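User: Teach me something about this protein's shape.
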Amino acid sequence: MKLGINQRRVFNVLERIAAEGAACPTNAALAERIGGDISDTAKALADLRRLGVIDVVTVGKKRQLTIVATGAQTASIERKPTARERRAEGRA
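Assistant: First, the predicted structure itself:
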């Protein structure tokens, strides 16, 4: 599959970050790293997801990204238990 230049730039950065197991950057941080515009970076990220090149799980404002071809992932995100879950465990 042939990627556009912005898609390739974003993918290359994400691939390095995932290989390190570092936290998934924000769109603004990604744009800064590739020297691009935030909206172009967000579009490239959405394109990569749509093409099945990456998989993204979002919890709140944080996300964990997986490079589909290799299985490499950015740092895991910790989800805080909901009030209902805390009550069910007797911690409310």
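Now, about its shape. The first helix runs from residue 5 to 20. The chain has a mean pLDDT of 91. If you'd like, I can walk through any region in more detail.
User: That's plenty for now, thanks!
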